[in-house]
Amino acid sequence: MNTHKLGWRNLLSNPLNTALSLLLMTFGVGIISILLLLNNQVENQLQNNIRGIDMVVGAKGSPLQLILSSLYHVDAPTGNISYSLAKKITKNPLVDFGIPLSYGDSYNGFRIVGTTHQYPKLYDATIKEGRLWSAPLEVVLGSSVATINQLDIGDDFYGTHGLIEGGHIHDNYAYKVVGTLNKTHSTIDQLILTNTQSVWQVHNHNENTPEDPKITSMLVKFKSPIGLIQIPRKVNETTNLQAAVPALEISRLTNLLGFGLQSINTIAFIIIIVSGISIFISLYNSLKQRRYELALMRVQGATKKQLVKLVLQEGITLSLLGTIFGLIISRKAILIMSFYVDHKNTLDNLRLNLTKEELWLFPVAALIGLLAALIPIIFVYNINIPKTLSNA
Amino acid sequence: MLKTKGVTFSYEEDSLISFPDLELRTGENLLILGESGVGKTTLIQIIAGLLKPKTGLVELNGTNYHKLTQKKLDQFRGKHIGVVFQKPHFVRNISILENIMLSLYLSKNNQEPKEISRLLSQLGLKNKANSLADQLSQGEQQRAAIALAAAKKPDIILADEPTSSLDNSNCSKTINLLKKQALSNKSQLIIITHDQRLKDEFKNQITL
Fold it and tell me: Which of these, B196, B149, B144, lies nearest to B168 by C-alpha position?
């Protein structure tokens, strides 16, 4: 038996107080940790899907919507644009390449995207089985699409008009699976890819290329940053198309999200501080009840320092244990959340290792344990042994 | 040996308590009798190094321990002085055995389980070793308090009214155990009491 073990025994002998302090600490830390993890996750996913695309050209409308729909495939498209007009933009010598995207149909909620072979290349998506499309109506499946729908090479399916399940079914032409892609941890995992010709064919009900073919948007990469300064402005001012810059829109979006995160963060910090107060009250109360035993320990030879350490140990143990529980619980919570969010979520690439920001929670928690123990320590330090013992 | 000389103490400016000089050799016992309010507890707290005397000298085996720093005094008291309080005190959350272990740890003595269990059986507490203090009767608590003070084999055991709350049979039992422990540890024993039942138990006695 020593003071270290005694500290543990004291915590265990007061299970309700200990549990309350731990619970509050766990909650506060847990909420902050969930926010940090999600924030990280979202930022990662947002950055990961930009893939060096400098500009997206589409129909006029909200620039954020254009970015969300053509880079992340989470929003409705802004409208259709003329393919030839979009192609004209890519003729500019400052442009490295442009990738056309035609979408608007889906299968079981997975989007069917008409594009070129450059698109899977952009996402480093390699063929797992089969081959890329070479004729209209041939499709290649992203890895999640293949596993969730249990589609195999050679299977046929009809596309649904619109991006949600239950729309009109285009039953005039069936798509045929010719290949599947390896997992890339990006949006392409959730897409069904085909060529632009297929999309025209399904919608126009004939196999001829229309006179003025339409696409939904064009992903553009510039050769040099100068393009970024000149071209988006030029497109917006001189054509009836819209040019949106992903980097700009995404930072606008994260700023908007950041504000919400900030307020939840503040609430979580308040919970942590309340937990500090709870630790303080439970330490102080139990020490007041135990003042005779503190005096007794001093009579038995304990130095002031030993008793101070005992109190500190109890305070810091509570706050650090709460922190560890909080970090564990936040991870469990995210795993459970990602289970309930549908298959199209962007959480399938979960990173649950300790983040740099989370490491900060440890010194903060230790500090709160220290502050909570401060007044009890002063009490222990100044305990009047003869008076305490004779008032027994 | 314990030696006090010219010890006085005052709680307030105008009232001064002076105590008789004491000299006690190893193995000797002393009963200090006195009515309530004459400063019996004050004297025992001075000898225990818990209160500093206003004037005078207190020495144990040649060490004037009131001159030591607070930390050294705490350690000196822990090692050399065992105190049995009027009302027994224990650390509540741990068992009697663990209380004894803790007191040995705090006084930097070895924790010898065999010796502790022998001590506990001498005091009739063998089957109470793993009980919490709250689960013990008053007589058992008083005996456990003796075990707590005696386990570290101190040079001197101070007992403050150890029998005041005990009935006659527990009273003589407790005193005999105290004497026996002091004898086997070669400790000096000082008992301070107003309990007239103890008058005949000690040869060496003074009245405050």
Answer: B196
Q: Break chain B down into helix, strand, coil percent, rounded to 5.
A: 40, 20, 35
- CATH code assigned to B2-207: 3.40.50.300
Closest residue in chain A to residue B105, using alpha carbons only: A2
The model's pTM: 0.72
Provide the residue ranges of all domains of chain B, joining segments of one domain with +.
Answer: 2-207
The predicted pLDDT at position A144 comes to 86
Q: Which DSSP string do the residues of A314-361 spell out, in sequence order?
A: HHHHHHHHHHHHHHHHHHHHHHHHHHHS-TT-STTS---SPPHHHHTH
Could you report the per-residue pLDDT of A261-283, keeping only the tens digit for each? 788 778 888 888 888 888 888 88
| Shortest distance, CA A302 to any CA of chain B (angstroms) | 5
Residue A265: enclosing H or E segment and its boundaries? helix A246-289
- Whether the CB-CB separation of B46 and B190 falls below 8 Å is answered with no
- Please choose, from the candidates B69, B72, B68, B74, the residue with its C-alpha nearest in 3D space to the C-alpha of residue B106: B74
- CB-CB: which of B92, B98, B107 is closest to A293? B92
Interface confidence (ipTM) of the complex: 0.88
SS3 B32: strand
Instruction: Please tell me the distance from the alpha carbon of residue B157 to that of residue B83, in angstroms, as a whole number.
Output: 6
Question: Using CB atoms, which residue from B77, B78, B90 is nearest to A293?
Answer: B90
